[in-house]
Amino acid sequence: MNNASQYLAFLRFCLHDEPCPAGAWDGMDWTGLHGFAQKQSLLGVVFRGVCRAGEAGARPPRELMMQWLAESEQIRRRNMLLNEVAVELSHRFAHDGFRSCILKGQGNALMYPDPYSRTPGDIDIWLEGGRRKVLDYVRKSDPKANLQYHHVDYPPVRGVGVEVHFMPSFFSNPFQNRRMQDYFRQFADGQFRHTVTLPDTEGTVCVPTDSFNLVFQMTHIMRHLFDEGIGLRQLMDYYYLLKKGHTPQVREEAAKRIGHVGMTRFARGLMYVLQSVFALEDECLLTPPDGQLGKVILGEVLRGGNFGRHDDRLSPDSESGIGFTMSVMRRLPGLFRYFPMECLFRPLFLAWYPIWKLRYR
């Protein structure tokens, strides 16, 4: 078993409450496992498995264990902060007349056995009202706010980055994107009314419903596959979403919606990854798995890590417009065989995008 296979096997152990067989992790490269978990933004989740393995006598060196413990505590505290900020922002936007919905992030953490183990990022919050209205509102706080096609950067709150979305996600293919935006508009009202309480907070926030998430979060994963990349953290989010035990009717409806917006082939590849990496049960799958495509997706995930930040194809100046475009262009040839239309439209979108932004200066 090579190191990557061993790390993935340990990740499966982390997700399933099965006893740790004696000697199962003898010879584990704990430093390598830590680096793998760090690359994929899974330090907190994997550390829970490390603690379970330690009960059976398999544990990292003391110095690494203490470092990992401190990092897990930082993840816990960061989650607590983001929960507070999510509630604060939701109340602020409601006071200013906007219904809102927290996308991914802290809503996804609720699906984990330990919601404080998920490594958080920034806060993505969808505001009702459309691009122009929301953009004008945000620019009252920051006239130079960075605009993206589907969101605008809001001034950080207590050190937490915030992306205010006009739409949950998008595709470069205009025909596929039109169908997806129709779907988002059709079911938007339900997302702005679906409230939950985040751990250790007062008040409520809105998060997407499970049925909406089954479609939306797959669009998020697929879009990032064509941009900077996607990691195991986002796939784990989808794993826990599927593990919630949806009825056959809900899964069938989600599969139908996924097909309508042109993601059936991607869904089949994703199902293979979720089954082979996370041991997702057959009854949780949305579509039959596609092993050939799934191995391509998994290869991209393992190569690039969380949002592709460790991808060796990244340009040195990947944060710039030209550098980002060059990084994307290096990734598309490997995906063209499976997604020719999206690979053709992505460069066209990147060329059109700077011109489009001029209207919102």
How would you explain this protein's 3D organization?
With 361 residues, the protein is of the alpha+beta class. It is 57% helix and 7% strand. It has helices at residues 3-15, 30-39, 43-55, 62-95, 105-109, 131-141, 174-186, 188-191, 210-226, 232-242, 248-260, 264-278, 291-304, 321-331, 333-336, 340-357, and strands at 100-103, 123-127, 151-157, 160-165, 195-196, 205-206. The chain is globular, with a radius of gyration of 20 Å.
Largest sheet: 4 strands, mixed
Q: Mean pLDDT, as a whole number?
A: 90
Shape annotation: globular
Class computed from helices, strands and strand pairing? alpha+beta
Strand order of the largest sheet: 1-2-4-3
Q: How many runs of DSSP E, i.e. beta strands?
A: 6
Cα-atom radius of gyration: 20 Å
Low-confidence stretches: none
Report helical residue fraction.
Answer: 55-70%
Number of helices: 16
